[in-house]
Amino acid sequence: MNEVYQEVQSRLQITKGSANRYLLALLCLSLCSCVHTKETNPGRKENVNTYKKDVVLWYEAFEKKDPALLDRILSKEWIDIPPAPNQPAGPDGAKQILTELGTTFPDLKIKIEDILQDGDKVVVRSTITGTQRGTLIGFPAKGRAMSIQAIDIHEFRDRRIVRTWHTEDWMNGLHQLGVFEK
Asked: pLDDT tens, 101-110?
């Protein structure tokens, strides 16, 4: 630090007190540049305020087993991260997963626990419950129920979900379903 101070002082030919003020100002500018700026597009603000309400439609589609609801909320370019094995791209992939889960778990329920929003991203923590009545990734049904946690991050553009990152506690769910029993 002393070398930096001496370098600044010699290059700027300033006094010790001036160098300290210069370094303090430089530090303040650096910190201020990291602060999040306020949104200046009022049209975007209107959309952003509705995203928490809009995202509920995604969960209603799964709850009601109604793929048509996904057409109202997903962008045609929607990206699922990570996609399931053999899942088609775009909204058709979401519809396939909805159909498969609804068939495997006819009593499928998704309870929204929390919804948080930051700009154009909405984070949803949910609990997924259901009783396995059909094959799940090659494992036959044993009639057991499961309850797992899920976290989804949905990115919005023009009141449509363009990207979803998600993670579910499937390892715990598979244990509950008896997949690992001999």
From this structure: 999 999 999 9
